[in-house]
Amino acid sequence: QQWSLRIQQILAEETDLLEYPDIFEGSEVMEGLVAELVEDARAEMDVVDERGGAVAAVSYMKTSLVESHRDRVGRIERGEQKVIGQNSFTEHEPSPLQEGEDGGIMTVDPDVEQGQIDAVREWRSQREQAAVDSALDELRAAASDPDANVMPPTLAAAKAGATTGEWAGVLREVFGEYRAPTGVDNAAAARDDDALTGLRERVEEVSEALGRRIKILVGKPGLDGHSNGAEQIAVRARDAGMDVVYEGIRLTPARIAAAAVQEGVHVVGLSILSGSHAELIPSVLEELSDAGAGDVPVVVGGIIPPADERALLAAGVARVYTPKDFEVSKIMGDIVDLVVERHGAAAAPA
Hints:
Elements: H1 2-13, H2 28-50, H3 58-78, H4 110-126, H5 129-144, H6 151-160, H7 164-175, H8 194-210, E1 215-219, H9 228-239, E2 243-246, H10 253-263, E3 267-272, H11 277-290, E4 298-302, H12 306-315, E5 319-321, H13 328-343
Parallel strand pairs: 1-2, 1-3, 3-4, 4-5
Helix pairs in contact: 3-9, 5-6, 5-7, 8-13, 9-13, 10-11, 11-12
């Protein structure tokens, strides 16, 4: 970080770079690249327009993003695309920013969360509940009327002391809960390569030994909206021949556990990059246990410091993957081995 800042300061203070509005003006190379970008962008916008516009084409756009990212991950795995520090020039000195057990990641004192909970409870205890209930009823009526404006009753509810959660709860009652397309179901099949072919054969062997196809649930607990990693795990599992359950982002631990039981999955994969793994992952484990699925192995991927990784493994998580584990096919192979280990399925090693 300091090196990056110093480079910017040297360019700004020790060169005349900032005296020129556009140092690439007149460059045939840059103008050609810009023209190519504009042409491709307009072509993509035409496709979206043909599909009815941005709202109607959300599923198409999401699927395209998932496929594009899968292609990029594949190129990185095969070494066709270099990522410095990941698959190229991986030698490095320890960063002083990552010293200590927390890996340089700030953790929030649990008392802060409890303080906010107590503040909301105190707020609710001091307001006039009858006024709040009446305002929420007005909001519910407006939301149920296609011709009504929900803004006036929203403001009235806020002035009466309704919380954001109560306001959202009323709207959820009326409109239901929107679940965005994940892009996983409609993604085209991946191109074959040696790693994927070997993985497919391994999945077939173990599925035959189990008496049914390996089934994995990929879940995103909490408010974490970073879905790329989860989508790539889900798509690769599907391409490898597994049955995949993936409902998208922002799921509660209880919902993940219920889905795992309903679907009869062999393994649960959780992706979390919000920093809430220390709270949410144990909650998922507890919900699975309460639902009678405590024997289902759980694997976790995310930005997780070493100390937290050890704590999660001690709590019952079977595997923990961090950004250094970029080979998705290898992760899939680990998951197949984990299913074999837990279910005693006899299958020849890959």
